[in-house]
């Protein structure tokens, strides 16, 4: 199967997951780039950031039109993650490849565990922002995005709900602003690695992901949300186990 076809299929699956679940789908981009398209872990995390930026900005536009983005609070949350994202992005290319793969596997497993938790385990925090906790959550998310090339929606949304007492739709919309800002900050420090990105693979992958996200939104209206989430979580756990095994052998 040609690289173009594989890129289109993988991008479509990533976009479908993003559109249906509102977050977490980008975690599939890195393993797809490594194991289907032959990228090194460092190159895959850089390419995944490009994909995350494009898909997040597209989704952000739709949520902004619907009034689901809290711009001021989101900007402050994102600001705490900009420096960690930039520093982590600069370090990513210098880490041993097996370590990067193992770290990504751990994050993928954490994402799956987050999705398997019942919705009642995500209570809204008390009204009123808690600056220290919000800054800590923003910094941690920025470091994760910069190092591993994942959007981190599966962490950003719970943080916005529990730390800043956002309702779910506002948390999803605002998380896209945070993810976009962190991803751009990380890319700014990866000039050397972005120069080597294969755009003949990334462009169709990204295009398919954006189109797949629209289909994912429609899919979410027809299939039970919890069923979609559990199915995706099981797939993610399998991917994490495979990557960890690969990193340790």
Automatic annotation (TrEMBL):
Record InterPro entries: TM_pro_TauE-like, TSUP/Inactive_protease-like
Subcellular location: Cell membrane; Membrane
Domain of life (superkingdom): Bacteria
Family, per entry: Belongs to the 4-toluene sulfonate uptake permease (TSUP) (TC 2.A.102) family.
Main location: membrane
Organism: Streptomyces iakyrus
Keywords from the named record: Cell membrane, Membrane, Transmembrane, Transmembrane helix
Protein name per Swiss-Prot or TrEMBL: Probable membrane transporter protein
Transmembrane region(s): 39-62, 74-93, 137-157, 163-185, 197-215, 227-248
Membrane topology, from the record: Multi-pass membrane protein
